[in-house]
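We now fix the convention by which a protein and its fold are recorded. The integers have meaning only within a learned vocabulary of local backbone shapes. The record below shows the convention in full.
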Amino acid sequence: MSGTDAWLLAIIVVLVVVAAVLALAETSITRMSKSRAAALVEQGHKGAPRVERIVDHIERDLNAVYLAVNITGVVQASLVGVLAGRLFGPVGVAVGIVVNVAVLFTIAEAAPKTWALQHTERAALLTAPLVEGVGWLLRYPARGLIGVANVILPGKGLKKGPFVTEEEILALAEEAADAAVIEQSERRLIASIIDFGDTVAREVMVPRPDMVAVDHDATIGDTVELAIAKGLSRLPVYRESADDVVGVVNVKDAVRIERAGAGGGERPVTEAMHDAHFVPETKRVAELLTEMQSGSIHIAIVVDEYGGTAGLVTLEDLLEELVGEIHDEFDTDVEPVERLPNGEVLVNATLNVGDLNEELHLSLPDDDWDSVGGLVFGTLGRVPVPGDVVEVGDVRMVVERVDGRRISRVRMRLPERPGGGDAPAPGLARPAEEEASA
């Protein structure tokens, strides 16, 4: 081996080490979130501010690191080919390429990236100076090459995240709960917060048939009596029908007027009401919660696309989406899902299909319907009667009780084993007479 060959070998070894360090830096940066970087700063780690700067401008430095990785790999592979050709000829080039791939994969890919995954914060702190240096050196060449790439295939560059999906967060929470790192209640709260962002007012509202409202011609005394009977603190006030809500009365104000004497109980309820707050049924509850908090609003009227009243939503309804049911002394303790001794379940038809899927580990369709009753009604295709049967996938649902034209209770037979047997085609319905003969 000549002196030139020795120099080539030394440069190759150095480039392998550089490639390993760059792989370490790349993995640690992409796995480092802003919250973790901020935590490092708060803990006073040396170099943590540098890590935070890199994470805040990850699209700037990471592209430069990618370019450095490519430069290192191409140059190292080329030098290996030259050295192998000089020492062993054409056959040596082929052997050298195979050996080089194995060495690079082990030393410059698998080992450093695995270590970075296991010690992300430590790897980020160690490689932060290198990342900033590479970013300063190759920032503009990387930006120019990305511009060329966008001419060939238009794009928007590297996004700033998030680099973790909702599904990954839920999976991590599940693993943490199984390992007793967090409580099951905390896991449920995390899931509720994630679902909260995708929920709309229509899914949490009290539907119009369940609304308790008072006519604008009613007296203060009648309003107080109705509120006491129903255990409510606020009531919508309508003029012609529930589609014509003109305000909301706070029962506390009505009681104050009634107790003031001088025939206060005979005065019209309109003297105690204030303006109603209207929201579209498609409004996201996260925005609605902020809106109601900032405006000190406790009840909002939900309207559909035609301007009619779809229902109402209270501040308590929104909070229950986050922390679960909040029961007071006026709530009736009715279980939405009741398990029967024969393995079937009785379900309140107003229960949200998504909540039922989560409770019973099902996959009933919830794109076109919000409630279980809506699912049965829509699949049946007509006004239901007790005993009607609907089969969706391998779940069999029987209409147990109907109030007027509205389904109130559904009895469900769940599949005996996941994936066992041939499931019926979705959306099969059988009339009550056929069910009785079966």
Q: What stands out?
A: The chain has four domains: 3-152, 166-196, 204-323, 337-437. The first helix runs from residue 3 to 31.
